[in-house]
Amino acid sequence: MLRAHTVDQVRAAEAALMTTLPEGTLMQRAAHGLAYAVLDFLGGRGYGRRVLLLVGSGDNGGDALHAGVVLARRGVQVEAWLLGESTHDALAAFRAAGGRVGRPRGGRDFDVVVDGIVGIGGRPGLRSAAQEALAAVADVSVVAVDTPSGVGVDTGEIHGPHVHADLTVTFGTHKACHLLDPAAAASGAIHLVDIGLTLPPAQVEALQAADVASLVPRPEPDAHKYTRGVVGVRAGSAAYPGAALLSVAGASCGLAGMVRFVGDPTVADRVRDHHPEVVGAGRVQAWVVGSGADADAEAMLRAALEDDVPVVVDADALRHVDGPVGVPAVLTPHAGELAAMLDVERSEVEAAPLAHARSAAREYDAVVLLKGRRTTIARPDGLVRVTTTGTPWLATAGAGDVLGGLIGALLAAGLDPFDAASVGAWLHGAAATLASGGGPVVASDVATALPRVVATLPAP
Ligand SMILES: NC(=O)C1=CN([C@@H]2O[C@H](COP(=O)(O)OP(=O)(O)OC[C@H]3O[C@@H](n4cnc5c(N)ncnc54)[C@H](OP(=O)(O)O)[C@@H]3O)[C@@H](O)[C@H]2O)[C@@H](O)CC1
Ligand SMILES: [K+]
């Protein structure tokens, strides 16, 4: 599991560890990890390379200067542009190692810029000196120290100018800004340096392949179709039959023992043509409701809720949810649908997905899966999982219908709503990447790739 801790949690862990170590040890650990990550970024070769450090007045700037010492010893020509009103004590060591200080001429001549302007002590936005420095080196790759300066570290939000990093080297643990958009998009690749912190449970996490492998339901040796769970789909309409087909395609990933479809008779015929193994009405362990349901959405939702089993509420059915639905539920809105549920603007949801997913989970007492580049899944108690699998090609019609069906299959197989939603989103993203192979995909390709993704998970 990849975990993101808050600034307060990191500060507390740092304070506890510092009492057991000689002064400066943690910063040296951070700075060495940073320096070697910069060398890797430069292709492993130090001699003849030029690195510019942008140095703020806090410990983030101190990390950059100490890393500059290590880089200088490896033959890198290092220069520091000091941006704060005061400068970290590390400046003396930096000068002693041969580091140059000043406002450089010819910004384009550097191989990389190290952003040590602010880290976890920074307020969102950047002061004018930092903005001016960044503008002077706008074409050079950036390695950010701990966080891309200027972003909201705990919120993942962006309020004003900030650094766009190619790589962020962070210390001790991830922070929300590395995982959640829009800040994650400004973080680039993330490299975590272990500095020995002991941390409490995190409130933001991201499943990794090994976590998915241990959560994904697998049949017992004596399993039969009913013990594996039956998932029911109520979706589609005469106007939107394809949504039903795709919802059923996701549910037919093979992770539940059987799939039922209940809906418009002509749509049901088409579902059976495409998926001969799908059967009609009967008992289920979970329902998936809403994709392409159009005017039938409300009736479909009411009918599903009568069975008192967990439910995935998607698309058109979301409009008919006005509070807790009374059964364990996964609500799967995109930003526009979540905006309508919370009575805010879509742009507000996009600017603060973490805050809005959490607030909807609390208000609707359900797991809320907010679709996006980094699909964000919130539980009513505030725990959040972010999905790091996927490809931009996944932004395609019908992909959400497949996801809803897949989550329904995982619910029917016995996962709780939070695990079902987060495992489903991870598998869905991984299937899209597999099906894409770097090129375009359509939603049915994603559904087809799901069993192969499950088959290639690491051994649990
Ligand atoms: N904790 C750990 O485990 C470890 C932490 N480590 C490192 O310490 C870093 C945290 O250092 P930190 O606490 O000194 O704060 P930091 O991020 O340098 O920023 C504060 C300074 O920035 C300024 N400033 C603020 N906002 C600004 C803005 N928008 N634009 C411009 N300037 C702004 C503010 O100035 P002031 O407002 O006081 O004038 C203040 O001086 C952390 O990210 C990591 O790199 C590692 O070495 C070891 C392990
Ligand atoms: K930084």
From TrEMBL:
<dbReference type="InterPro" id="IPR030677">
    <property type="entry name" value="Nnr"/>
</dbReference>
<feature type="binding site">
    <location>
        <position position="400"/>
    </location>
    <ligand>
        <name>AMP</name>
    </ligand>
</feature>
<comment type="function">
    <text>Bifunctional enzyme that catalyzes the epimerization of the S- and R-forms of NAD(P)HX and the dehydration of the S-form of NAD(P)HX at the expense of ADP, which is converted to AMP. This allows the repair of both epimers of NAD(P)HX, a damaged form of NAD(P)H that is a result of enzymatic or heat-dependent hydration.</text>
</comment>
<comment type="function">
    <text>Catalyzes the epimerization of the S- and R-forms of NAD(P)HX, a damaged form of NAD(P)H that is a result of enzymatic or heat-dependent hydration. This is a prerequisite for the S-specific NAD(P)H-hydrate dehydratase to allow the repair of both epimers of NAD(P)HX.</text>
</comment>
<feature type="binding site">
    <location>
        <begin position="119"/>
        <end position="125"/>
    </location>
    <ligand>
        <name>(6S)-NADPHX</name>
    </ligand>
</feature>
<feature type="binding site">
    <location>
        <begin position="371"/>
        <end position="375"/>
    </location>
    <ligand>
        <name>AMP</name>
    </ligand>
</feature>
<dbReference type="GO" id="GO:0005524">
    <property type="term" value="F:ATP binding"/>
</dbReference>
<feature type="binding site">
    <location>
        <begin position="59"/>
        <end position="63"/>
    </location>
    <ligand>
        <name>(6S)-NADPHX</name>
    </ligand>
</feature>
<feature type="binding site">
    <location>
        <position position="292"/>
    </location>
    <ligand>
        <name>(6S)-NADPHX</name>
    </ligand>
</feature>
<dbReference type="InterPro" id="IPR036652">
    <property type="entry name" value="YjeF_N_dom_sf"/>
</dbReference>
<keyword id="KW-0413">Isomerase</keyword>
<feature type="binding site">
    <location>
        <position position="149"/>
    </location>
    <ligand>
        <name>K(+)</name>
    </ligand>
</feature>
<comment type="similarity">
    <text>Belongs to the NnrD/CARKD family.</text>
</comment>
<dbReference type="GO" id="GO:0046872">
    <property type="term" value="F:metal ion binding"/>
</dbReference>
<dbReference type="GO" id="GO:0052855">
    <property type="term" value="F:ADP-dependent NAD(P)H-hydrate dehydratase activity"/>
</dbReference>
<keyword id="KW-0456">Lyase</keyword>
<protein>
    <recommendedName>
        <fullName>Bifunctional NAD(P)H-hydrate repair enzyme</fullName>
        <ecNumber>4.2.1.136</ecNumber>
        <ecNumber>5.1.99.6</ecNumber>
    </recommendedName>
</protein>
<keyword id="KW-0521">NADP</keyword>
<feature type="binding site">
    <location>
        <position position="334"/>
    </location>
    <ligand>
        <name>(6S)-NADPHX</name>
    </ligand>
</feature>
<comment type="subunit">
    <text>Homotetramer.</text>
</comment>
<dbReference type="GO" id="GO:0110051">
    <property type="term" value="P:metabolite repair"/>
</dbReference>
<keyword id="KW-0520">NAD</keyword>
<feature type="binding site">
    <location>
        <position position="60"/>
    </location>
    <ligand>
        <name>K(+)</name>
    </ligand>
</feature>
<keyword id="KW-0511">Multifunctional enzyme</keyword>
<dbReference type="Pfam" id="PF01256">
    <property type="entry name" value="Carb_kinase"/>
</dbReference>
<feature type="binding site">
    <location>
        <position position="115"/>
    </location>
    <ligand>
        <name>K(+)</name>
    </ligand>
</feature>
<comment type="similarity">
    <text>In the C-terminal section; belongs to the NnrD/CARKD family.</text>
</comment>
<feature type="binding site">
    <location>
        <position position="401"/>
    </location>
    <ligand>
        <name>(6S)-NADPHX</name>
    </ligand>
</feature>
<feature type="domain" description="YjeF C-terminal">
    <location>
        <begin position="208"/>
        <end position="457"/>
    </location>
</feature>
<dbReference type="InterPro" id="IPR000631">
    <property type="entry name" value="CARKD"/>
</dbReference>
<dbReference type="Pfam" id="PF03853">
    <property type="entry name" value="YjeF_N"/>
</dbReference>
<dbReference type="GO" id="GO:0046496">
    <property type="term" value="P:nicotinamide nucleotide metabolic process"/>
</dbReference>
<dbReference type="GO" id="GO:0052856">
    <property type="term" value="F:NAD(P)HX epimerase activity"/>
</dbReference>
<dbReference type="InterPro" id="IPR029056">
    <property type="entry name" value="Ribokinase-like"/>
</dbReference>
<feature type="domain" description="YjeF N-terminal">
    <location>
        <begin position="10"/>
        <end position="203"/>
    </location>
</feature>
<keyword id="KW-0067">ATP-binding</keyword>
<feature type="binding site">
    <location>
        <position position="146"/>
    </location>
    <ligand>
        <name>(6S)-NADPHX</name>
    </ligand>
</feature>
<keyword id="KW-0479">Metal-binding</keyword>
<feature type="binding site">
    <location>
        <position position="243"/>
    </location>
    <ligand>
        <name>(6S)-NADPHX</name>
    </ligand>
</feature>
<dbReference type="InterPro" id="IPR004443">
    <property type="entry name" value="YjeF_N_dom"/>
</dbReference>
<keyword id="KW-0630">Potassium</keyword>
<keyword id="KW-0547">Nucleotide-binding</keyword>
